[in-house]
Amino acid sequence: MTDDVRNIVLGVVAAGISATLGWFGRTCLVPDGEAADPAHGATRAAAVPLI
Q1: What is the pTM of this model?
Q2: Neighbouring C-alpha atoms within 13 Å toward the C-beta of 10
Q3: I want to staple 36 with a disulfide (CB 3.0 to 4.6 A). Which of 5, 22, 31, 46 is the partner?
């Protein structure tokens, strides 16, 4: 049981880290006004891979 709880906690922590990095990448690394807006179609920044 302890291993199961540990695995769940590690999974939640990993998901939180991934979400934080995604938020940071979208809000801080992409210049203002160039982020992709799904409601209005992709912009130039969406066509450029971040990797």
Answers
A1: 0.54
A2: 6
A3: 46
